Every structure is written in structure tokens, then in C-alpha cells.
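User: Predict the complex with S-adenosylmethionine.
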Amino acid sequence: MTDQPQDHWDKVYSEKAPSEVSWFQNEPRSSVAVLNRFAVPVSSSFIDIGGGASNLVDALLARGWADVTVVDIAAPALAASQTRLGEAAAGVQWEVADITRWQPSRRYGVWHDRAVFHFLTEPEQQSAYRAALLSGTAPDALVIIATFAPDGPEKCSGLPVKRHDTESLAAALGSEFTLLDDWREEHLTPWGSVQNFIWCVFRRNPG
Ligand SMILES: C[S@@+](CC[C@H](N)C(=O)[O-])C[C@H]1O[C@@H](n2cnc3c(N)ncnc32)[C@H](O)[C@@H]1O
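Assistant: Here is the predicted structure with S-adenosylmethionine placed in the model:
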């Protein structure tokens, strides 16, 4: 394994097809279900943090979302999505950035993070994420975060993770966010292993 997270992730996405990684899902069902459940208008701005090569962006475009940004530390991940999308990729904002160093230039109505926050094992990394979250979300923004649950895997992609329950996630985000819903999910990897996730949906408090 390499020393720097960026080197690690660049290597992963250069060596494996999107469907060969443990976090692959054919359809981003939970993410889309949250948007439906909270009746989020497709005119909202959406940011996928650590979106990787996920096909969530495809699902959003297919549903008419027009203001979609995908941020990831690994350029090859975003390149894979761009290739898959073809011309439609031009309608998406792509940013290669480390979320713990990134300063958003605008605020988003929906902040989505599936399987990224749990890689932030140090309190300083979590504080940096929170700073980005505070700069990057508008009042009333919906914040959707999925991490490994307390009985989920101890590692992902060979890296250590910090597993969360709803309480630890809510504490990490801070008092500016109100929990709307949480649930557990059993994610099935492409090779049939079960990974326990916790999903939490927060609303950024108004004002
Ligand atoms: C387990 S994958 C999940 C990818 C995607 N969210 C999904 O659901 O398919 C974790 C992703 O987070 C990205 N990542 C890891 N650390 C990051 C960081 N500090 N800043 C931005 N992206 C990061 C990786 O490159 C990878 O694409």
C-alpha cells in the first residue's frame, strides 16, 4: 500500500474496474430513495462527496437533476465516470480534491457521502470535514451520510476506518444539523460479502 491517500485511491481506480470494488452497487437505491422520501426537487444543487466512479450521478441526470457536482480525491475515478457518461459528463461539475483540505466555493442544497467519512479516523480529519460541510451547505440543506456501522468491516480498500453509529455521526457533524432519519443497510459486495452500513439523514438548521 502507498503512504498517501491520494496515491492509494489513484492506484485502486487505475487497476480495478468500477464493478470490481467492494463498494460497487448496480443502482444507488438508498440514495435515490432518500431524495424521493424527502421530496427533494431536482432543481436543488447536489454534491456527491467522494463520489468515486459511482453511478449515482447517472441516476441523478436521468431524473432531471441539472446542478450536480462530484468531488473525489482520485482523478481516475472521476475519469471513469466521465467516460461512462460521454457527452452528458459536460453537464456535471467535477473536482479532484481531498475533502479534508477542500474549501467549497459555494453552498449546496444536498450533501451526499456514501462510504467516505469513515476513512477519516483522526479527530482533526473529521473537524476538517465538518468545516467543509459548514462552508458547503446552505440553510435547510439535506445531508445524507452512509458509513460502516459499529459491526461493519474494520477496513475498506485495505485502509483502516472509523465505524459509526448515529450518535457518533451526529456528534461529529455538530449542532448545526438535525437528524431526520437513520437506518441500517446490509450492502452486498460484488463477491457476496455482507457489509453493515448506517445511513443518516440530517437537515442543516435554518439561519
Ligand atoms: C468506498 S469509496 C465510495 C465511492 C462512492 N461514494 C460510492 O458510493 O461508490 C470511497 C471514495 O472516497 C474517495 N476518498 C477517499 N478519501 C477521500 C478524501 N479525503 N477526499 C475526497 N475523496 C476521498 C475515494 O477516492 C473513493 O472514491
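Residues 5, 9, 23, 50-52, 54, 72-74, 77, 98-100, 114-116, 119, 156 surround S-adenosylmethionine (CB under 6 Å).
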